[in-house]
Structure formats: structure tokens, C-alpha cells
Design goal:
Order of helices and strands of chain A: HHHHEEEEHHHHHHHHHH
CATH superfamily of the domain at 26-107 and 234-366 in chain B: P-loop containing nucleotide triphosphate hydrolases
Distance between the termini of chain B: 58 Å
Strand content of chain B: 15-25%
Strand order of the largest sheet of chain A: 1-2
CATH architecture of the domain at 26-107 and 234-366 in chain B: 3-Layer(aba) Sandwich
CATH class of the domain at 26-107 and 234-366 in chain B: Alpha Beta
Number of domains of chain A: 2
Oligomer: heterodimer
Bound molecules: adenosine-5'-triphosphate, iron/sulfur cluster, magnesium ion
Structural class of chain B: alpha/beta
Amino acid sequence: MIFYLLRRLAGAVVLLLIVTMAVFAIFFLIPRLGGATSDQLAARYVGKSPSPEAISQVKHSLGLDKSVPEQYGKFVKGMIAGKDYDTGVRKVHCAPPCLGFSFRNNLEVWPRLQDRIPVTLSLAAGAAVIWLIAGVSIGVISALKRGSLWDRFSMGFALAGVSLPPFFTGLVALALFSYQWPIFKGVHYVPFFDNPGSWAWNLVLPWLTLAFLYAALYARLTRAGMLETMSEDYIRTARAKGLRERDVIVKHGLRAALTPILTIFGMDVGLLLGGAILTEQVYSLDGIGKFAVEAITQQDLPEVLGVTMIAAIFVILANLVVDLLYAVVDPRVRT
Amino acid sequence: MPRLLPRRKRDTAAETPKLAPAGPPPEADNFLEVRGLTVHFPTDDGLVRSVDGVDFALRRGRTLGIVGESGSGKSVTSLAIMGLHGNTGARIGGEIWLDGQELVRSTPEQVRLMRGRRMAMIFQDPMSSMHPYYTVGHQIIEAYQVHNEVSGKQARTHAIDLLGRVGIPRPDRRVDDYPHQFSGGMRQRAMIAMALSCDPELLIADEPTTALDVTVQAQILDLIRDLQREFNSAVMMITHDLGVVAELADDVLVMYAGRAVEHGPSRTLFEQPRHPYTWGLLGSLTRLDRDRQERLMPIKGSPPSLISLPSGCAFRTRCPYADHNDGREKTEVPQLLEIEPGHRTACHLDIQERERIWTEDIRPRL
Ligand SMILES: Nc1ncnc2c1ncn2[C@@H]1O[C@H](COP(=O)(O)OP(=O)(O)OP(=O)(O)O)[C@@H](O)[C@H]1O
Ligand code: SF4
Ligand SMILES: [Mg+2]
């Protein structure tokens, strides 16, 4: 078990390193190979009408005038140890974890992102809990009542859920529950520690919007998994012992059916940013997703880079958690 | 799980004939008595008559061997006794008496309370019959604790004790192992320990050794025999292997296409079998004392479809003596009739004729 943990942890660190290389390559190496000079590259990081001095300063700050390995070293070191930027107007110390400096906004990237992480995290965590509970229960009941009216209805519903994107369901939900029947009016983010009740109340619609998509998927997955495990030999053994049907279903059937779902869950949580982008747009929540969209539309490369790093770390962490959970759930993994 | 929806109306209720009231309870000696058992599965292709009128009785301390080709209804019969057809849509008719209680007409909850406690079952494949995510000990403890109000510690001691009794070395350590850490033979031992956890009076072993290699097979069979002596339980031993039957069974029931075709004491069935299908089974025995492990006289053809059985005698399509019956084999289902005390067969052929065929024709060639 200890070995397994260490292995996974080491794996995560290696993965993180690879991610920094990949990000570095995408942002600095590939444009270079594509023929961009260091000046052109630096120009992309400066404001709208860059002065030559500014460009050369940025070039120096980013280390674009150095060799590739040196550049990469500087890139990583900057993130870990912090870095000084000279905008030409003022000197800025970007404290670690330094994800870069947006010359366009004249601000460090990390503090701006930092404010937005709780928003996306709140959205993602709440939605994940909802979709997991809803999806799994609907799936289990459908499997146990296969072919019944409930089964057909919920699987039809699930098909709709899978095919409808959040910007559609989100807008419909807004139109209905915010304007038509103003139960959830003026959705905006309230920090959890300011007012937990209003935090939750404001997030209900975004949660449901995001969860709908996944709940549908998970209902189908769970149904298929349950149908499979409930026909396993060990289920017959459990019944032969005289166990109550409820224990047979939950302790023996669901336990086995949930394990593969857990893996998928980890990946989905990691990749949730995709779904969060749309949901945050619809509800104007200032989360990472919306930040990413703004950064991309403004072509603010340092911000795009920062958000990419955060997203990658999110995926790696989610997978690490799932790996650990998996070891708890499936004893065969541990040895 | 709480019921979230109103109970669905049973759409099959209209088609399912109401169960006839059960007959009188069997004499006290017969711990298990099965009367006219039928198990039918409605499917899209038609009604599968997996078991179509089987009866037999079994006393405590005795072993009944059930033999027959694949698909003859052996497992379906034993699952019906255990009440494990609940979720398959099976329609069950007839009577199953266990120690004076009729099970077909009992509620699922009543049967559940018998399951594991008064009757237990060992399955064919020990690899897939254990839950991969729980320790062997946990699965035995679970079986014990459903029916006994004991502390976790007591149950654990009991599990270790059982594992030791079925011959698992270092049971105090192996109790915390997962099934994948056990070999096939060990797992089957653990399955037996699980089945024996509540001292069941009826033990059904459904091909308990087919998945194991030969030496392990012998050990497992010895184990079952020893435990039976110790507990004086009734054992149903289902197998393809007539050798196992010869060694273990007091009585033998031969099944073909969901029906019993011959039933009697083990010795009688081996020395004076009186049904052409039994002759076929004996003839297709692999003989270890011959040079080549060849089948002497395999039964021609394959078992009929259980959806559309041949009219009359179900075996007539494969029976070498089908044309000795004056056509009755096509019109009349042969009934299982007693030809001598305790020996029953289902065949139209004249009994003297069958005796002659066996002694002159079949036995010399075996
Ligand atoms: N749930 C079910 N639905 C439909 N048909 C079934 C069902 N369960 C069993 N059967 C059919 O009943 C017949 C008898 O099956 P059973 O498992 O009792 O055979 P068996 O004698 O145990 O054979 P084997 O030696 O291969 O174990 C088979 O043809 C099988 O296809
Ligand atoms: S009744 Fe006729 S066909 Fe059927 S087993 Fe007897 S001899 Fe063969
Ligand atoms: Mg079988």
C-alpha cells in the first residue's frame, strides 16, 4: 500500500514536470520553430503598441534571448522561486507561485487567478456531488427495474441530457427560474465564508446546469455497470448466503459497479474546466473558465499560459485522488 | 433501498396459472422432498421448459447424485430449491418440501431466512463465485452473521475455525486474504467453509470440482464426504462425472431435457440400469483403464431444444431403441414408474426387453 502511494505520488510529480515542458514547448518552442524571432515572440507578451525598449525588456525578462534549455530552466525556476519583471515603467516582483505577468493588464497572473479558483471549485465540487448522487441512483434504479416505465423514461431523459450542451440547458434554466419564476434571481458568486446559505442558493442553477450533462452520462454508465455486476456469480453467492436483497444490491452489486465509475469520475472532474467554461459564461460567474475565455479573446498569452498550468495541475491532482481512492476500493490494485 | 416508485403491476400475473394448493406434507424422514417441480422461463423465442416435472426425496445423512448432459436442468433444479430464481422471471410449479415446510408457496423472505442457514450451495466456479473486493474472512463472517446474532469477534473466530476445518493452512492469517490471493482449490475450500458456516442440513454442490485439477478434485470430494458425516446433512451432488457419483452417492437421479428418466440406488443404477439414456451415459464414460481415453459409445446427436421438445419421449430422437415402442414414443410421455422397489424409470420399452438388451447387448461392450 505504501509503495503504491509512493509510486503514484512520484508519477504525479513526473507528470507535472512533463506538463511544464509541454506548456513551455507550446508557448515558446513551437512558435520559434515556426520561424518567429525572439523579438516577435516577445512582442506578443507586451501591450498593444510595443516600444522597442519594452520588447527588449520583456525579451530579457522571459529569457527569450537565451538558449532553449536555459529558457526552460528560467521558466520553471520562475514558477517555483518567483521572478522579477521590468515593465519599463516599474519593476515588479512576481512572488511564487509565479505563473507569469500580464503586461497587458500590468498585473501578475496568479493573484488574479487565485481569486477565481474558489468560484470554479465551488461550481465543480457542488455539481460533481449532485451528478454523482443523482446519476448513480437513477442508474441503479433503472438497472433494477429494467424495462419498466421508470427505466425507459429516465434513460430517454439521460439521452437528452447527454446531447444538450450547458449553454442551452443553462439558458433555459435561467429563463425559467430566474426570469419567468424568479426563484433564483440575479445569480452571482458569494464567497462561502461570507454567507454559506447565499453561496449555495446562488449556485443552485449553475450546479444543476453543469450536473445535468454529467448526471445523464453517469445514469447510463451506472445502469450498464449494475446490469453487468448483478448477473455476476458472486451476486448469486451473496443471495445464497441469505443476505437481504438490499445488502446484495448495495454491498455486493453497487460496490463492484462503482469502481470503474470512480475512474471516469476522476477524469471528468479533472476535465471539468471544459464544462465550467460554458456554465460560467451563461451565469457570468468569474471563475477560471470565464478567465480563460477572456484571456484567449484578448490574446493575453501570460494569462493563457497561467490558466493552462492551473488546468493541468487540476487534472493531475484529480487523477491522483482517484488513484488513491481506487486503492481503497479495489484490493487487487494494492498488491 | 427505500421503494421510490409504486410497485409495478405484475404484467405476467394474468398468464401465470395460480399455484394449485400443495399436497400433504411428506413423511418426516424425507428432509427434502421435491414433487412435480417445473421451472419455465418465458423468453422472446418461446417458453423454455428447463425443468418439466421432477420429483425425488432425500434423507438426512444421504447423498443424491444428479447426472445428465449439459442443459438437462440440473442447476435450474437446485437453484429452484434454493429459491434463487427470484430475478429471472422463472415460473415455478410443483412442490418443494424442506423439513416439512413448502418453499414454492412460501414468501421470498421466508425462503431467504432458510437460505444459508438450513440449506446452502457450493457453486461450480470458485474463481467467480467470490466477491473480489472483500476478504475471504469477511465473506464467511457475513454468511455467519446474517443468521446468527454474534459479535464481529466471535464471527471472526468462527470463520478462522471453519477455514481450518476445510484444510486451509494458517487460517488465522489467510482469513484476511482476498480471493485473488487464494488458489482455485483453496477458494473452493473457502466456498465450502462459507456454505457450512451455519451448519446447513441440506448442502447442494453444483459441480463443485469441474474447475479444479484432478488431485484437488479428490481432496474436495473427500472433504465434502467427511463434513457430511460430521454434520449428518443431506447432500445433493450435481455432476457430469459418473465416477464421482459412483463414489459418493447413495441414490442417483438421471435427468434428460428437464425430466427425470431414471432414479434409484446408486448400485442398482450402475449394475442394472434400465433406461437407454443411462446406458448412453455409461457408454460415454471415459475409461482410465483402457489405453486411450476414448469414449466407447457416445450418445448420438445433441439434446433437443427446451422450447420445442419432441412429442412423447424427449429422448426418442437419439434413442437407438426408439423403433421398438410401436409408435408410443411419439404420442405419449413415458411416466417415471417404479420397476422394482426404489428404482424408477421413464421408458415405454417392455421391461423384460430392456433387461435383455442390457445384459446381452450393452454390458458386455462396456
Ligand atoms: N434464466 C434463464 N432463462 C432462460 N433459460 C434458462 C435460464 N436459466 C437456465 N436456462 C436454460 O435452462 C436449461 C437448463 O439449464 P441448467 O443450467 O439447469 O443445465 P445443467 O443441467 O445445469 O447444465 P450444465 O451441466 O451445463 O451445468 C438450459 O438450456 C438453459 O439455457
Ligand atoms: S421410450 Fe422409447 S424412445 Fe424413449 S427412451 Fe424408451 S425406448 Fe427410447
Ligand atoms: Mg449446471
